[in-house]
Amino acid sequence: MPYVHDVTLRVSASPRATVFAGMKSPASEGRDKGVLILFSIAFATFMVNADSYIVNISLPVISSYFKVGTEAVSWVVMSYQLTVTALLLVFGTLGDRIGIKRLFMLGYGLFTLSSLCCAISPTLGWLVASRALQGIGASVLYALTPAMVPRYLPPEQRGPAFGALATAAALGISVGTPLGGLITGLLSWHWAFLINIPIGIVAMLVAKRVLPADLSAAEKAPLPAFDYAGSVFSALALVSLIYSFSKLNSLGLAPTVMGAAVLFVVSLVLFILWERRAAHPLLDYSLFRSPAFNYGNLANFLCLCYLAGHNFITPFYLMTVKGLPTERAGAVFLIYSLIYMAMGPLAGQLSKRINPRLLCTIALLTGVLVSFGFSWLLGSTTMVPVYGYFVGLALVMATFIPSNNNVVMGMAPPGKQGAVSGSFRMVGRVGMTVGVCLFQTIFALAALQAGNLHADALKTVDQVHLLSAFSTVYTVGAVLFAVAAVSSFLARERSIA
Prior knowledge:
Growth Hormone, Chain: A, mainly alpha, 19 helices
């Protein structure tokens, strides 16, 4: 696929042609088209992340509306997250086969239509099923966006583009919860889904207009048949893994959790055995010959593992140790989002001047200091260490995430961007799930709470013991950052054939 400046309209190169007022040069038109393409890609990232959070704050209202308990209503979130994660590898590979633009448009359409189904749901079961359908559309968008940057933009624009994607993701996360609360409070929970419809339609029209067309069947090299069996095995393995991790906190070693764990092991073994004998496997093993792919994905897994664990455990510290009310604790988290959004584009620009692998390594080594330092200052009587921790963590993540995207996607050869993108996103999502479970388990063991991780239970724990438990969590987090830093240092950029 040619870069965007190769598909823009040509204008006359004669001196006379350049004197007309308002006429743009090809380079100028290429830059304008590139901005629109980047906006279309970044907006998809924003929508997927915003919808991951916009519904959470509405769950109590939805629970009351359908007269169900918290366990049942949690599937409104779970069904979305499961389908998003389980299908990332599938859609990443499909994008290379049927065309990234074509699949991207289908993802937008499905996301928009399923939002309508969510809004008009007459029962909780209908809503859960509609959210699963919405997760399929979101998985398409989430899997393809990293692949679209190297596919449609020239090399000199990729660093800033990945920085813009990181900013869009942070913006979606930061505005999702307050926007959902505002919409639900002023209107109803139905409007948290209805708002996606006009936005989705406009986004589809923009994408259709600005994205370069996919290569025709005659222009593309012939591709092998799609690995349907591998897709089923990989989806089963991921769904069962995520379910067992997510329910371990609330159910412990219940039969359903153990059954999901067994299903994961069986599905994973079947997937590996099938992929080893399949003529055209879903997971291209040639990717593993690239250190950038292997170590970049490991660093991504560990870093997002920390971030998700931090997002889960830190509110308990703010509310139990610092005594902050819920709304003020949420405002503290806003510091992270604002710093992240401001730093994202700058990190993208830095990756044009500094090797992105070295940027990742420096950022993660800084993360070791931030997390370990915070573990020693948890007992401070002021909020200064808390603010410093959030600022430092935001700078670390805003530097690492777009730079690491550049490292991993930079090694993807033509025709394999979708597969690399899908696996990269999948690894990150699994890391987020593992991070929540890991931090919760470490804290529960250190605080001797046996899984009773809620604010009221923690108020009965001795303050010294409580601080020690939180310190253990952030010390383990520093170790995650250290291993991720080594991984980033080893992620040498090298394309694969």
